[in-house]
Amino acid sequence: MGKLKKQIEQLRPYFEEGGKLHAFRSVFEGFETFLFVPNETSKSGVHIHDAIDSKRIMSFVVIALLPALFFGMYNVGYQNYLAAGTLAATTWYKIFAFGFLAVIPKVLVSYLVGLGIEFAWAQWKGEEIQEGFLVSGIIIPLIVPVGCPLWMLALAVAFAVIFAKEIFGGTGMNIFNVAIAARMFLFFSYPSKMTGDEVWVINHSIWGLGNNLPDGVTVATPLAQIGQHMSVNVSLSDMIYGFIPGSIGETSVIAIAIGAFILLWTGIASWKTMLSVFVGGTLMALLFSLTGQTDIPWYEHLVLGGFCFGAVFMATDPVTSARTETGKFYYGFAVGALAIIVRVLNPGYPEGMMLAIFFGNMFAPLIDYCVVQRNISRRMNRMK
Length: 384
Description:
The protein is mainly alpha-helical and 384 residues long. It contains 15 helices and no strands.
């Protein structure tokens, strides 16, 4: 590490004022801050020394996402071998290898397109490159079906980074969650590649792994079957473990729970937001269960679809969620309740977490404003 640091320092004069590569200074600084902690502080005011910076926060979130990513890779292979009827005749590492080869191109496309746009944007504006897309770049592939074409994913990433992030001022200034913006772009622009029975399983082999499936082979998610009032032959244990069709990183409750523990243990995610999402979803699912408007038990609503993933990794986004401590309860409750409302009352759209978080992002500033104004009013009344 010391040698690398010396080499970086030797290159620095070329990118400083008067250097031959000064025009690419933002790219150099972005690469340097990615490798090392910036050795700079503000020039005035009070300084608070803390070991956590934005780069470390993003790194911890990426680490928390790894269990969902790795299990998603395994489940992609599992669904292919299961559909072909050859699951018992293969080994776990072949299943994982097939899923790895199917998923890793999506991760690479997401990062190449997203980071490429961020680097180009920073270069154009002459600004410092931020680390915000380190998290969005891995979340976006995890919330799409494995059958989503790479070119569509690239378009969605480009749209989300430009119109949901950079146009608002970059990392920390965006109103809407970047990953949610990418998924909404795909859902409303290419609905046939985001829903239906043909997008959840890879129907061809990759590098000699996996199986070539007939064109007529289709796989439906449990939520889609419920929305069509079909019988669901999936056990609760499979729902929790994640051996069901679904978006790449959203199926395993256990993998998501491991990520939640990491985020809560490190203090990065708010337990208030996370808990209130589940409380709101539970109460709304119980209400629909008691009134006979849902075909499944209330607790299955919490373990199916993207509910857990959205509650842990997306509703808790510190930039787009409520920031006041009291507001986090209201925000999370509204997201959880709205997700179940959309899921139950709209048969054509059985997954409601995406829209719930989108509307939650929209009203988060209003929630914070109301909380602050109420506190001001209380203090004024005490003074009187």
